[in-house]
């Protein structure tokens, strides 16, 4: 195994160790909410729902109850259950209907980008299947922060500043999320009383209170006033699907991802390609390693954009995409000596607005959960009476027919958000996820190879510099801590390399060592990640 240069590490960031339970989220207030539930006798799923509810208040640019949710739950014996909490397009939404309306492209602020928000139904389904509590006690912290106020964290304030133009374009969004026309500063106390009222209604009435009644009316009215096609019936039809995770081995470890309509299968495609090269003999920070990772990513994302969508609309079974013969054919296109001239062109622009969290409780139950609005502040459309900020996941759809992701009534769009789990020798080993929109599948492969091939601990694997390719130009975008020697080596291999405009994504992970009864967590400083246990 190649030795690891430790100069890349963030100062002062160490893995967190605990023996009883652990939570790792992208916000300290969410982590503390999870620990409060765990220490009060709740299990990992209870704690995860309490944490994500808090995030929907204190990280409004990243996530919200108007978004979607995916999760994997792993039992102490290694049994896995997946949950697809993504909503579908309105029944009336077809390429033909959008053409009649003069819509040729679905932008993130379009009402047609708003598919049914699946998060609340997913949370309730998770609690019924694996939790021990209902919404009322688990929402208490989120409701308190929304009603009484919360301080804006540094990373949140930083991200917010880049979205002033988007928010200013809608009077209600501006009134809700700007302070005197500007992004709130660090430490500003914000309150969302309408959102607090909505959370209280859902806490009392369950998911049906969100998908029916006054809240549903408010969402439909907000969208239809902007030309949207959502109806009460569309919201009422929202359901969460229990699915079997897709499994593939990587060097003695079994990696579990959710099947489409998410892109988790693409992380497995990348790992399958990288497995065909002697990655562990390469410098983890060298040009050779990043060249192979980026070439594998370019191929895998071409597969994604050709095939991955709502499984009812896919041309092939997703299992074929990780078949050995298919991976062999793909891998033959990768040369260690130079960049591929072309691959299937990617269609989607990068997005980075998602929260990921993971919790493991004292009994060994683990949950890997991700909740998203897609673009920052989602669609920017706020339902006025309920305070629900609506996501823009339908931006992944194409307005014209003939694509894997052409919009259709009741169809779920391709999703970038992907929770993951991993087992070792059949036992729970790692609960992890990566934030960062399109980057997430690549990020899964990056974190796993850091740990498995290079022997990094979870925190070092998360902190390690990242690279991704621009979806339009295919030039490589490199975080600033990647050495100039590596960048020069990539250029010599035919790559165009530029500095990433900001940190690429974020990550949280908890490693489970059952023999020692030891939990080790990492969290991402790129997103103010915070892990804690006891």
Describe the structure.
The protein is of the alpha+beta class and 534 residues long. The protein has helices at residues 28-39, 44-58, 95-100, 119-130, 135-138, 140-148, 154-161, 164-168, 171-177, 193-205, 207-211, 213-224, 232-236, 264-274, 287-307, 324-331, 440-452, 458-463, 484-492; strands at residues 16-18, 22-25, 68-74, 80-85, 150-151, 189-190, 241-243, 246-250, 253-257, 353-360, 366-374, 381-382, 389-390, 419-424, 427-435, 467-469, 476-478, 497-499, 506-513, 518-523, 530-533. The protein has a seven-stranded antiparallel β-sheet. Helix 6 runs antiparallel to helix 10 (193-205). The longest helix is centred in the middle third of the chain and has 21 residues, at 287-307. It is globular, with a radius of gyration of 22 Å. It starts with 15 loop residues before the first strand and ends with a strand.
Q: Which regions have little confidence, pLDDT < 50, spanning 5+ residues? A: 5-11, 345-352
Helix content: 25-40%
Taking all Cα atoms into account, the compactness measure Rg is 22 Å
Straight-line distance between termini: 33 Å
Shape: globular
Task: Describe the largest sheet.
Answer: 7 strands, antiparallel
Helix and strand composition category: alpha+beta
Strand content: 15-25%
Give the assembly state of these chains. Answer: single chain
User: What is the number of beta strands?
Assistant: 21
Question: Strand order within the widest sheet?
Answer: 1-20-19-15-14-9-8
Number of helices: 19
Indicate the mean pLDDT.
93
């Amino acid at each position: 195994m190649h030795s690891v240069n430790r100069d890349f590490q963030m100062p002062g960031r160490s893995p967190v160790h605990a023996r009883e339970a652990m939570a790792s989220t992208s916000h300290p207030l969410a982590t503390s909410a999870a620990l409060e539930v765990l220490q009060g006798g709740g299990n990992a799923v209870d704690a995860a729902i309490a944490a994500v509810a808090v995030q929907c208040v204190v990280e409004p640019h990243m996530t919200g109850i108007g978004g979607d949710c995916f999760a994997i739950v792993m039992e102490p014996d290694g049994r896995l259950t997946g949950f697809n909490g993504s909503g579908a397009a309105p029944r009336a939404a077809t390429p033909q209907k959008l053409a009649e309306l003069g819509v040729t492209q679905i932008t993130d602020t379009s009402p047609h980008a708003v598919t049914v928000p699946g998060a609340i139904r997913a949370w309730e389904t998770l609690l019924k299947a694996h939790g021990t509590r209902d919404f009322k006690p688990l929402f208490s912290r989120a409701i308190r922060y929304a009603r009484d106020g919360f301080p804006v964290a540094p990373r949140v304030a930083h991200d917010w500043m880049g979205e002033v133009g988007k928010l200013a374009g809608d009077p209600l969004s501006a009134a809700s999320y700007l302070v005197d026309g500007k992004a709130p500063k660090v430490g500003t106390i914000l309150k969302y009383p309408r959102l607090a009222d909505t959370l209280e209604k859902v806490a009392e009435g369950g998911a049906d209170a969100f998908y029916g009644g006054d809240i549903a009316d408010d969402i439909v009215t907000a969208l239809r006033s902007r030309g949207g096609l959502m109806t009460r019936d569309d919201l009422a039809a929202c359901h969460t699907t229990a699915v079997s995770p897709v499994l593939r081995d990587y060097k003695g470890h079994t990696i579990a991802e959710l099947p489409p309509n998410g892109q988790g299968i693409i992380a497995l495609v990348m790992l399958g390609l990288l497995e065909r090269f002697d990655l562990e003999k390469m410098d983890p920070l060298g040009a050779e390693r990043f060249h192979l990772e980026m070439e594998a990513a370019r191929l895998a994302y071409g597969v994604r954009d050709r095939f991955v969508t709502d499984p009812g609309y896919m041309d092939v079974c997703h299992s074929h995409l990780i078949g050995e013969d298919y991976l062999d054919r793909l891998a033959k296109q990768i040369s260690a000596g130079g960049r591929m001239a072309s691959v299937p062109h990617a269609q989607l622009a990068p997005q980075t607005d998602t929260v990921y969290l993971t919790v493991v409780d004292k009994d060994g139950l683990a949950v890997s959960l991700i909740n998203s609005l897609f673009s920052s502040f989602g669609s920017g459309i706020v339902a006025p009476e309920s305070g629900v900020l609506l996501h823009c996941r339908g931006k992944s759809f194409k307005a014209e027919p003939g694509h894997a992701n052409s919009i259709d009534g009741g169809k779920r769009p391709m999703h970038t958000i992907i929770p993951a789990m991993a087992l070792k020798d059949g036992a729970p080993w790692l609960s992890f996820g990566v934030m960062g929109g399109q980057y997430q599948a690549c990020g899964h492969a990056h974190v796993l190879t850091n740990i498995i091939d290079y022997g990094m601990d979870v925190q070092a694997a998360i902190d390690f510099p990242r690279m991704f390719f621009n979806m339009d130009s295919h030039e490589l975008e490199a975080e600033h801590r990647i050495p100039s020697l590596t960048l020069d080596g990539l250029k010599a291999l035919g790559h165009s390399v530029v500095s990433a405009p900001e940190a690429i994504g974020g990550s949280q992970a908890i490693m489970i060592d059952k023999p020692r009864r030891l939990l080790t967590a990492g969290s991402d400083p790129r997103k103010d990640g915070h892990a804690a246990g006891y």
